Structures are given as structure tokens and as C-alpha cells.
Amino acid sequence: MKKKSKRYKAILKNSIKDKKISIKEALELVKKNSTSKFDESIDVSVKINLKQSKGGDFSLRTVVNLPNGSGKKSKVAVLCEASRIDEAKKAGADIAGSDDLLEKIATGKFDFTKLICTPAMMGKIGKHGKVLGPKGLMPNPKLGTVSTDLAKSVKDIKTGLVEIRNDKDGNLASTIGRKSYSTEKLQENYNFLIESLKKEKPDTIKGDFIKGIYLTSTMGISYKLGAK
Predict the structure, then answer these.
(1) Strands (DSSP E) along 123-170, which ranges?
(2) Secondary structure percentages of the chain, helix, strand, coil, to 5
(3) Which CATH number fits domain 18-71+160-224: 3.30.420.40, 1.20.1630.10, 3.30.190.20, 3.40.50.300?
(4) pLDDT tens profile 112-157
(5) pTM of the model
(6) CATH number listed for the domain at residues 76-158
(7) Are 162 and 175 in contact (CB under 8 A)?
(8) What is the CA radius of gyration of the chain?
(9) C-alpha distances out from residue 154 to 29, 45, 82, 94, 166, Å
(10) CA 95/CA 79 separation, integer angstroms
(11) What is the distance between the alpha carbons of residues 193 and 64, in angstroms, rounded to a whole number?
């Protein structure tokens, strides 16, 4: 059995069992527990109801543009026509290319974390789905990664755009910022995320859509949330 560190034992003293607390109280505790040297991510885990009254289970996959940004750094690649490569680089893309980028993708040897594709190049990228799909990198119009407006798409991903996707049990997770963010900014991001999720509830699901919410940090412990 792995021995708990002094730091973790100290954090455990701030744990709260069998009680829901407000987001403000939870944020203050999570920030207090973020005692590591790096800028820890503040993360929300949500359990949603997947059971529809008709048809199969509901599946959620969307993006949310957090008002105060996510604090997460992404290495963005843009796949576009050769004539737009300079435009993509000026927009802030870390990598930009056309057929040359497709060749690199085909090898499976690439180090970007997000891929934006122009509509004109989508016909060429389909055959690379087996490489990109498992990594969650296949461009998708619903996720803002198929676009003609490269400047906006790159900026969105570089700032506050986070992807939301549930697993088979209805669990989903998202960052709402970093420990260096003020409590007010984190709470604003949290409120925006939860309200955005509520809007995704289909009419075919009866009762509460959100069944549980937890807040934690990269190296911390989680808290169960109640009212805002």
C-alpha cells in the first residue's frame, strides 16, 4: 500500500464527508488544498442522466466557451489549403500545413493537441480517422474544429473553449480554470458551464438531468456540490 505524503495527510483534514456544500465554499477549500508548486487545474466532474423515455441512451458531446478562459495550453495545428498556411500561422496556429501535414498525420508521429481543418480539406482527412479518432483529434463542425474563420477558431481553442463528452456511465469532466484564478472568476466559469450543460438536456429525458457534481484540483481531494 502506497504511503500517503505529509502534504496529502494535511489536505485530508479539510475533507467533508456526506455533505453537499456551495460552490463558493468548495472553491475556497480546493484553492486552499492546492499546495503543489505548479498551477493546478480546478476541475468539475458531473454525473448526468442518460436515460431517455424513448430510444437509446442519450450521449452528450459539445463545446463550452468559458468566459474567463480555461487556463489550459493547447498546441494547435491547422490543416488548410496551401494558400491559407500563412493566414493560419498569423492567426496563432503552432503548426500549419496542407498535404505535408497530412503526410505527417499518416505516420502517426505528431505532437499537437488540437486540430482545426478547413471544409475544403475535410475530403482528404477522412481516411486518417483511424489515427486521429482514438486521440480525439478528428475535426468536427460541432466542436468548432472545422472552420473557415481560422483566426476565431484558433483564438477560441487557445483561450476558453473546452470539449465536453460523457462516458458510458454518464460521467463527464471539465476544467474551469487554474488555482491562480480568483474565486470569482472560477465561480463565473463554473456557473456558465453548468448552465450550458442544462441547456443540453433533451425533452426525452424526464426528471433531473444533472445527478451530481464534484469539484477538485489536480492534486487535491473532491467536494460534493449542492446549491450555488
Answers:
(1) 161-165
(2) 35, 20, 45
(3) 3.30.190.20
(4) 999 999 999 999 998 999 999 999 899 999 889 999 999 999 999 9
(5) 0.85
(6) 3.40.50.790
(7) yes
(8) 20
(9) 34, 26, 17, 10, 24
(10) 9
(11) 7
